[in-house]
Amino acid sequence: MKSGPRASGSGGRVVLVGDDGLGVRVLQALRELGITVTAVCARPEAPFARAAREARVALIIGDPEHEETLREAGVEEASACGLLGDSDLANLHIALELLELAPRARVVLRLFNISLAGPIHGLLGDVVVLSATELAAPAFVEAA
């Protein structure tokens, strides 16, 4: 399935790689902004794949660590790629693939081990690293 609304303005198309609730929430937010999204998910039964089908966005089912899957998703033409999977190693592997396949795309990388952020910036350059743990910590402290 390769359909969905056109991107508005300068947002361009975004490729999201994920499988869980984070991918679902990011997909929903981007769609609300009118941004064209292509979703990549390894498991057709994953919440992210179900959400992509419900939102009627282009959905590629395949291993996102394989170059062919990323090419099928059109990462070469993407303005941004969100690597939102729950495996640091897989997200890093995909980010390295994107260095060659989509050197102009902005990359947002989900990591659980935030101590890797510094070395990643040195290796990958213009990458935004997000850590759910780091983002959630202030909310837990405030709630306590």
Strand tally is 6
Largest sheet: 6 strands, parallel
Low-confidence stretches: 1-10
Radius of gyration: 15 Å
What is the mean predicted local confidence, pLDDT? 83
Order of helices and strands: EHEHEHEHEHEH
**Beta fraction:** 15-25%
Oligomer: single chain
DSSP helix fraction? 40-55%
Secondary structure tally, helices: 6
Shape call = globular
How far apart are the first and last residues' alpha carbons, in Å? 46 Å
* Main β-sheet, spatial strand arrangement: 3-2-1-4-5-6
Class per helix and strand makeup: alpha/beta
Keywords summarizing the entry:
144 residues; alpha/beta; six-stranded parallel β-sheet
Descriptive account of the structure:
With 144 residues, the protein is an alpha/beta fold. The chain contains six helices and six strands; from the N terminus they run βαβαβαβαβαβα. A six-stranded parallel β-sheet has the order 3-2-1-4-5-6, sandwiched between helices. Strand 5, helix 5 and strand 6 form a beta-alpha-beta unit. Helix 1 packs parallel to helix 2. The protein is globular, with a radius of gyration of 15 Å.
